[in-house]
């Protein structure tokens, strides 16, 4: 399975810009990114959920914003992968991955961000749990990664 490389050039540029120069939306996105990554690196599911709630609040102010949608899906993905790593039941993490896929699809339709396509590829790969799903989700995952590379 291909690894997703977050943050890449665009997202990394958010982190390097002084916060005073960032728009309010970009400040929310940067805060979300930092919060999600810190919580994930600690293996703290509760903090990843808190980060997801943070992005939900941002989406009330910037409804349908594709970058914030990306980070909302990223939080769902990170929460799901932590649950998978802690051997939780599939019923707990699979809905998170499905929701992340749906949100990433919406985000990608509005903003052609390579990270969104790469993340969607990874989400789809995580949803494959049997050969039949592999036949349908595998090509979708590959197409998403191809689009990420193309961008």
> What is the SS-derived class?
mainly alpha
Shape, please?
Answer: globular
**Average residue pLDDT:** 87
Q: Describe the main β-sheet briefly.
A: none
Beta-strand percentage range: under 5%
Number of E strands: 0
- What is the gyration radius calculated from CA atoms? 15 Å
Helix content: over 70%
Count every helix, treating DSSP H or I runs of 4 or more residues as helices: 7
Distance N terminus to C terminus? 20 Å
Q: Order of helices and strands, N to C?
A: HHHHHHH
Features:
single chain, about 150 residues, mainly alpha, 7 helices, about 0% strand, disordered N terminus
How would you characterize this protein structure?
Helix content is 79%, strand content 0%. It has 151 residues and is mainly α. The chain is globular and about 50 Å long. Residues 1-13 have low confidence and may be disordered.
SSE blueprint:
Layout: H1 9-16, H2 24-42, H3 45-61, H4 66-85, H5 90-110, H6 114-127, H7 131-150
Helix pairs in contact: 2-3, 2-4, 3-4, 4-5, 5-6, 6-7
